[in-house]
Design goal:
alpha/beta, 7-stranded mixed sheet, 5-stranded parallel sheet, 17 strands, 25% helix
Length: 472
């Protein structure tokens, strides 16, 4: 689809989005038909995948989102938007079934279907387009975006270039595979797979005599439960290992959830860099724990298997790290383990491994090589990002590069949270247009973070972001 049929190849866009995951999809939805703006923004979004899919390898039957349905693409910024989840239900004649289902947390498959519904109708989204480079064109005072159009097999079909006043990076995250297991995961004959690909390999995994799941977060718990339910009683042959000291519940108390509010994001951003870096790993239970329903379901399933005597052949061990791993004859895997509290070591031989080891922010340095001379970085050489989600660039660059889900080091644990998607998108659009089309609340939490009132640090204005957009 195209954003504006009359938009020429050299006519600059107001905004180009790179990547179409939930966060840039949220930005695209809110940018479409901005309230009170007689001149629609000229936007386009590029995604190298052929279509929108949200974690297809983890759409396990019955798995739900860990955020309420109100954390859709738009509602927390604009409940009247035509791109809301409730309007999606209305378009499918499903409002009454949803009403009677009384679901606050919807199925993941339903969230994926909702996002695909938006992506298939929203103009200005270009799938099968891989962005190769971004540069600042000083003469035109615009960003140049080079891209490759891909065919259905992912092969290069055509090259293109677009110009834009602003950019939104939403390239998302990628599966993290621990170093000791990377050689095995890269070998197709050895069944060591990341949880992101679980459903694609589930049938093959179930044929294995012994299966090991590594990782104590929600994905690890859901996969362990799914495998447990699929194995015969007394012959489960499952191991579940985790580095965390416990298979712990996610922090889901009402005040605890206020760490995912704009108030906390602003507070976190204003902290010194060293304090922020120390805080993030301490807050693992805010985003790496397991919801209590899943923990309960696992315990119920294990308990059910003791009703006629005996214990299930399932071992659940937290506090363990994998030191090294190797391949044995017959494509078996040998894991060398160390218990972090006992400081003891052991070996485990298994037939298949599922790595529920999370995700890491996808590196953006290669794409931004052309901007590197203009880019400010912190002491860890990470991009500096201001409180309005803009890369801090040299004043010579008069456009803005906004980032989505690449700012955990500056904005905290809420960066990847779906509940902040609409708010962050609205913040970006308010800053970009200078017209405040989405009024946002000054206060969002009962908790007051810090002893001194939050004050926004002075950040030099960056070109067009502080100037109202005009259109010919």
């Amino acid at each position: 689809m195209t954003d504006r049929p009359t938009h020429g190849p050299d006519q600059p866009h107001d905004l180009i989005g790179i990547g179409i995951g939930p966060f840039n999809l949220s930005l695209a939805a809110l940018a479409h038909g901005i309230p009170g703006n007689p001149h629609p923004l000229a936007t386009t979004f590029y995604e190298q995948r052929p279509a929108f899919r949200w974690h297809p390898g983890l759409l396990i039957d019955g798995a739900t989102l860990q955020v309420p349905f109100l954390a859709d693409l738009v509602t927390l910024a604009d409940p009247t938007s035509p791109w809301s989840f409730l309007n999606y239900l209305r378009s499918r004649d499903r409002l009454f079934p949803f009403y009677f289902a009384e679901r606050f947390h919807i199925h993941r498959t339903e969230y994926d279907s909702y996002c695909r519904w938006v992506s298939e109708q929203l103009p200005g989204l270009h799938f099968g387009h891989q962005v190769d480079a971004v540069r600042w064109n000083t003469d035109r005072a615009l960003f140049e975006v080079d891209f490759t159009q891909l065919d259905t097999d992912g092969e290069a079909e055509a090259l293109g270039r677009a110009y834009t006043r602003h950019i939104a990076l939403g390239v998302g995250t990628e599966p993290h595979i621990p170093t000791p297991l990377k050689p095995l995961a890269d070998t197709e004959t050895v069944p060591v797979i990341h949880s992101a690909d679980y459903l694609h390999h589930r049938d093959r995994l179930l044929t294995a005599d012994h299966i090991t799941v590594i990782g104590s977060g929600q994905s690890g718990a859901e996969i362990f439960l799914d495998l447990l339910r699929a194995r015969p009683t007394g012959h489960e042959r499952l191991h579940w290992l985790a580095r965390t000291p416990a298979f712990a519940p996610m922090e889901y108390s009402k005040l605890g959830l206020e760490h995912f509010t704009p108030d906390y994001s602003r507070y976190f951003h204003a902290l010194p860099e060293a304090v922020r870096d120390a805080l993030v790993p301490q807050q693992w239970q805010l985003h790496k724990g397991i919801d209590t329903d899943t923990i309960t379901a696992i315990h119920d399933e294990l308990y059910r298997r003791t009703l006629h005597g005996g214990w299930p052949d399932a071992t659940l061990t937290p506090g363990v790290r994998v030191r090294t791993a190797g391949r044995l004859p017959g494509n078996r895997v040998e894991l060398h383990l160390e218990h972090t509290q006992q400081t003891t070591r052991d070996r485990l031989v298994t037939d298949a491994v599922v790595l529920a080891t999370g995700y890491r922010e996808r590196p953006i340095d290669a794409m931004l090589t052309g901007l590197d001379p203009h880019l400010s970085r912190d002491t860890a050489h990470r991009p500096a990002i201001d409180d309005r989600y803009r890369l801090v660039l040299d004043p010579a660059v008069t456009g803005n590069v906004y980032v989505q889900n690449a700012e955990r080091h500056t904005h905290g644990v809420g960066a990847p949270d779906l509940g902040l998607a609409a708010w962050r998108s609205a913040t970006i659009l308010n800053d970009l247009t200078r017209t405040n089309p989405y009024p946002l609340p000054e206060r969002t939490a009962f908790t007051t973070f810090g002893l001194t009132p939050h004050t926004t640090p002075h950040i030099p204005a960056q070109g067009h972001a502080r100037v109202p957009l005009t259109h010919s």
